[in-house]
Structures are given as structure tokens and as C-alpha cells.
Design brief:
8 helices; 6-stranded mixed sheet; 5-stranded parallel sheet; globular; 13 strands; alpha/beta
Length: 274
């Protein structure tokens, strides 16, 4: 794990609280943190967690690289979801670097986009570090994390759903599925985890089991599976009952608050070794 006490690390920040948690850990390790927030999704509160903060529109790859190089950065980490649905919305006119980048892609699957993005940064002398270098306190442990356990039916749904969730990850479709009664209510696709929970939970009516896993060949530099308070909020909306997470290979952002909120709502959280 990097421990250079004088180095500045770049933080390419998407949505949610994860970039703030990563910034906190990076600074604890002795890094200065230069954050580039991706508009329109970055949480502006991130500026209070870093040493320097600026923003670049998510469609401006050229501007992003220019900003990182202008700060003299050779290492960076990506944290926070950037919804792929932005590709299909006119959020801004892409710059020429983005147009060229998109034209070179063989498809628009997450892995294709992100692997190509890492190569693009590398070509400019910027190495992307593993997000897990800065998230050790967020790793999901094995076992029951809440006081209330699972019923026999809910355990059967966990056993049924985990192989399916891993297969969806292998196919690079999504990392989350919603099940009930050993039937799949929803599979995460381009809409993201929370929307998949709302869609599947509505179909289940109540008592849905939400399962989130890593991909079989998960790249630790990006798109690492994570849940947080928004996940619990979505589950509460549709009265989902269980959140099953792959132990050692998923993150719980603001872990203590998530567990407390889940317990108050009667939601069980379990880390499953797979």
C-alpha cells in the first residue's frame, strides 16, 4: 500500500459519500488529496474533505486529463458511481478527446469503458490505484451484521440468488439482483443499484432480498461494489427485508450508520463468503 508522506494523489470523484471516505483515508495515510469532481454528479461537500478541489464535466475527458496533468499528478484513484445512463443524456457536449475515446470502444459495457479509460490515463503517465488501498475499514465482513437474523425462506433466497448475481457480474450486466421466493424480481442494469431495488421491491410487494456481489474478475481500480445509506433508504421504501453482501469483496460506506439504520428498519444485513 502506498505510504509516501509527501505525494499528492488525484481523486476522480463521482456521486455519493464514497469519495469523501476515500479522501479521509488517503489523508490519514499522509497524502495530499487533489480532487476532481465530475459534474453533474459529484457531491460539492467533498471540498471540505480534500486539500484542493475543482470540477470537470463528466463528458470532458480531455479537460479531466489536462487538470490532472496540470496538477503534476502521476497517481489517482476513482471513487463514486458515475451512472452510465449519462451517456444517453445530453448533459454536455463532449470534447474531442471524449469523442475519440468513445469511437474506439468495442461496446459500452462497464468493463470496456473503464479498462479503456485506465489505458487512456496510463498513456498520459497517470497510474490508477486500487480503491481498496483506501477502503480497508469499509470491507464487508462475513456473518450477520445486524441483530435480527434471517428466516429459513430468506436464507434460501440468499443461497438461490448469489450464484445468479455472480453470473450477472461475469456477463458485465450488473452486480445486484433482487429476489423473493427463489424467483428473480429484478437484475441491475444501466439504472443502478437503488433503482433496481425499487423496481424489484415493488414487484415483490414486501420482503424482498437484495444481493450484491463483486464480479468474478473484479478490477479493484474501479466500479468496486458498494452500498450505503441510500441503499437502505431504497430498501425501506419497498419494505425489502434482507441485504446480502459478498464478504471481503464489497464495501459498506458509513458502515456504522448503515447498520444502525438497517436495524431500526428491521432490515437484516449479512456478509456471505462465496
Amino acid at each position: 500500500m502506498p505510504q509516501d508522506m509527501t505525494k499528492t494523489i488525484g481523486l476522480i470523484a463521482g456521486m455519493g459519500y464514497l469519495p469523501m471516505a476515500v479522501a479521509d483515508e488517503a489523508r490519514r495515510q499522509g497524502y495530499r488529496v487533489f480532487a476532481v469532481g465530475l459534474e453533474p454528479v459529484v457531491n460539492e461537500a467533498l471540498r471540505d474533505y480534500v486539500d484542493e478541489f475543482t470540477t470537470v464535466n463528466v463528458a470532458k475527458l480531455g479537460a479531466l486529463i489536462k487538470t490532472l496533468k496540470g496538477a503534476g499528478l502521476t497517481e489517482a484513484v476513482m471513487a463514486g458511481k458515475v451512472p452510465k445512463s449519462l451517456l444517453y443524456k445530453n448533459m454536455a457536449m463532449p470534447d474531442m478527446r471524449t469523442v475519440s475515446f468513445m469511437l474506439k470502444l468495442k461496446n459500452h459495457n462497464d468493463d470496456s469503458i473503464l479498462n479503456a479509460l485506465v489505458e487512456e490515463f496510463a498513456s498520459e503517465g497517470i497510474t490508477m490505484l486500487n480503491i481498496t488501498d483506501f477502503t480497508s475499514g469499509m470491507i464487508t465482513p462475513a456473518g450477520l451484521l445486524t441483530k435480527k437474523g434471517l428466516s429459513k425462506e430468506e436464507q434460501k433466497d440468499i443461497d438461490f440468488g448469489f450464484p445468479l448475481a455472480k453470473e450477472m457480474g461475469r456477463l458485465d450486466i450488473g452486480q445486484t439482483i433482487v429476489v423473493k421466493g427463489r424467483a428473480v424480481m429484478a437484475v441491475e442494469a444501466i439504472e443502478g443499484t437503488d433503482m433496481a431495488i425499487l423496481r424489484g421491491g415493488e414487484l415483490a410487494v414486501s420482503g424482498a432480498v437484495v444481493i450484491k456481489t463483486s464480479k468474478p474478475a473484479q478490477d479493484k481500480r474501479f466500479d468496486y461494489p458498494a452500498v450505503g445509506l441510500d441503499t437502505i433508504a431504497a430498501m425501506k421504501t419497498v419494505k425489502a427485508r434482507v441485504l446480502g453482501l459478498e464478504a471481503d469483496n464489497t464495501l459498506i460506506v458509513q458502515k456504522d450508520a448503515v447498520i444502525k439504520d438497517a436495524q431500526a428498519a428491521g432490515i437484516s444485513i449479512i456478509g456471505v463468503k462465496y
